[in-house]
Amino acid sequence: MAPRIPAHIRDQIDTMLRSGARINDIVAATNTAYRTIWKLRKNLQDFGRVTRPRMKRSGRPKLIVETAEQVKLLQFVKDHPTAELDDMVQFIRREEGLVVSLATMSRYLKANGWPQRATKSLAAKTSAQPKAKPAQGPSHAQTGEPQNLSPPSGTSSTSFTKTAIACWKLMTSDLSPVSLFTAEGTEHIRQEDGSPNGEHYDPLREQHARDTSNPGSVFEPSRSHSGTKTGRYKRSDKTAHNPGMKAPLWVEGDEKGIVAFDQ
Length: 263
Prior knowledge:
Radius of gyration: 50 Å
Mean pLDDT: 64
Largest sheet: 4 strands, antiparallel
Number of domains: 4
Shape: elongated
Helix content: 40-55%
Order of helices and strands: HHHHHHHHHHHEEHEE
Low-confidence stretches: 193-198, 217-222, 224-241, 246-263
Distance between the termini: 98 Å
Number of strands: 4
Number of helices: 12
């Protein structure tokens, strides 16, 4: 590498060296170090100039250099936007007999300013589109039909179905929860059902039948915060220690009626 000296002094040294002047005379005339003059003379002998020629940029040699190869590869990418690097490598090997690696193909695409493969953009567009939801039938709230529920363990299907129908009638009517189990509420539901025999599910009647068949249940009265008389059926010790005896329902009641709940 040539010493860093001003351009006009380097041109003067070049002229004096070509004219055959001695190194001591050039040092005295240009006020430059003897070693600098010696390096410039060696460059003149080796390269024909006082400065070394610039070295080529170091790096990997280009494998895809022909214009025809570039045009074919670009056309292949346009015709096959979702092609992977493997497909491009096989295309170049099949068409031009050029063996390149996946890394070489990737570097070549980036060096030429080509965008990323269209697979990413297509995937982004696909994910951005709203997905179609599966078709669903009308809900029970829209149709006005009671929802079919499976009875809990320990409850008969008939009792559970009747209880569900009574609850549905309560939600669709203007009656209060307490008046549902009074005479007025029972008559209202019986008229809506239109039963030919005039019978309707009565939770008090079913609870009375269960209490009669199960003497272990005891009704313990108590008072609520509002002063209304309430009570709850509880298992007696006989029922708790006898696994074969059927346990009664938990029942809450007040002065107007008793509401039965399955435990």
